[in-house]
Amino acid sequence: MIDFLLNGQPRHCEATPEISVLELLRETLGAMGTKEGCASGDCGACTVAIGETGADGELRYHSANACITPAHQLHGRHLVTVDGLADGDKLHPAQAAMVECHGSQCGFCTPGIVMSLFTLHEQQRREQDKALAPLTPQRLEAALGGNLCRCTGYRPIRDAALTMNEHPEHRPLWMDAAAPEPKAGPAMSESPFAQPTTLTELIECLERHPEARLVAGATDLWLESTQRLVRFERLIDVTRVAELNVIEETTLEDGRRGWWIGAAVTYTRLEPLLEEHFDAFAHLLHRLGSSQIRNRGTLGGNVANASPIGDAPPVLLTLGSRLKLVGPEGERELPLEEFFLDYKRTALQQGEAIRALFLPYPVEGETLKVWKLSKRREDDISAVLGAFAWRLDNGVLRDVRLAFGGMAGIPKRAARAEAALEGKAPSAAAFQQARLALSQDFQPMSDVRGSAHYRQVSAANLLERLRLVLIIENQAQDATASPREVMLHAYAH
Ligand SMILES: Cc1cc2nc3c(=O)[nH]c(=O)nc-3n(C[C@H](O)[C@H](O)[C@H](O)COP(=O)(O)OP(=O)(O)OC[C@H]3O[C@@H](n4cnc5c(N)ncnc54)[C@H](O)[C@@H]3O)c2cc1C
Ligand code: FES
Ligand code: FES
């Protein structure tokens, strides 16, 4: 049984392990305002807002795709849907602005768009001084990037977003109501949807049911249910395990300092740390899925999923990340490189979970670049992704690490290309060798995202881009060189 608030009303519902929030709403509770479009997290028609009370006692809403959010994760939370936004006959500012700006034609996408605007509005309200936190184009794109509209066109929707704060603040009072305290069941590890809250409870669940599937944000796992009709007999939800939700500073035995990122920390929570320390990684994060996906998806899920086109693994490989795994036999650590064995096969044993991922502090003098190639900028999976780190020591490349996604059955470093550059000046000849070496490092596959040839050429082009960037960044110190001169110089070398 799950207990939650739906638009301020307490609900006590029975739910099977594989039922989604969308199914619960439409099929069990008859709340039909939330629509189903793609059932795979791509279109945003099913967007809802989920309110959680944080450690500071404040209720915060985040947007989520109801079609791929497990209903059990609502336990102890506050679910807000489009059916509940208006305050009697007074429209919420997100709704009023959409009406005023003609932001809807067929209207199928509209409930989802209104809900994305609602969560944006809620965040802005929390920031209190809207004048000081203007809606930048980046923030607007991030808020609406996970919502497709096929007939209105985005300009009126954008106008609605830009003007919603000018509408009267009609908002039902229950929106600030705290969600019910989650009650852990007495035989929690026997529940088909176990929700442990501590590491000890998680290990107990893993010991009793090593065959259970683990679920975090469900943004990968749930596609097995909606697209491949897999039925989950037993799930262990890691999202409430306190120890998996922390970011801790640490020093490893080898002396490297950095952070252990709990496997259940969402991308949205990770964003400030990346923005402060890893520009290139933060930029990639802004292009990973949509707000709805980043609000729920985790690094732990991205790595455990072991997709060859997952975005984070190549970056983590380049940074020299490690994993901490837990299970009934205890804890063990291993370098991320030893985790990926073969296509979708990892070193994770049955009954083990990822506890945390180690992210080292940026090394002085080291540069990180990450380039993702996909068909769309927003909300699209990579065809090829290159992550590159190096130091320039007296004009010579040192500690070169080049990792790629989309080029093999697993995310992988390009050992031969790295060797071609290590200890060399970043000359055209060295990069020519590195590009040639790439064809020995990888024999990519053809699939819907790109042919093997496209992938091979694109990866080589990313190395060429790296060479040009190195030249440009060196030249940038020469303030007298024009951008054209810099480019000509780059091509001449
Ligand atoms: C619309 C859409 C867009 C997307 N865009 C991108 C994108 O641009 N780039 C990208 O890389 N990915 C993308 N994804 C995929 C997905 O969002 C990411 O891989 C995400 O990081 C998965 O994390 P999660 O917490 O949702 O994992 P889940 O779906 O909960 O789990 C994924 C897998 O990891 C396992 N798992 C989860 N946590 C643990 C743990 N602690 N220990 C061991 N195993 C665990 C699960 O059993 C499952 O096998 C997208 C998905 C969707 C639906
Ligand atoms: S129905 Fe398309 S994102 Fe959920
Ligand atoms: S109004 Fe028709 S899809 Fe957006």
Automatic annotation (TrEMBL):
Keywords: FAD, Flavoprotein, Iron, Metal-binding, Oxidoreductase. Residues 182-364 form the FAD-binding PCMH-type domain. SUPFAM superfamilies: 2Fe-2S ferredoxin-like (SSF54292), CO dehydrogenase flavoprotein C-terminal domain-like (SSF55447), CO dehydrogenase ISP C-domain like (SSF47741), FAD-binding/transporter-associated domain-like (SSF56176). Gene3D superfamilies: 3.10.20.30, 3.30.465.10, [2Fe-2S]-binding domain, CO dehydrogenase flavoprotein, C-terminal domain, Uridine Diphospho-n-acetylenolpyruvylglucosamine Reductase, domain 2. The keyword Cell division does not apply. PROSITE patterns: 2FE2S_FER_1 (PS00197), 2FE2S_FER_2 (PS51085), FAD_PCMH (PS51387). This is Xanthine dehydrogenase small subunit. The gene is xdhA.
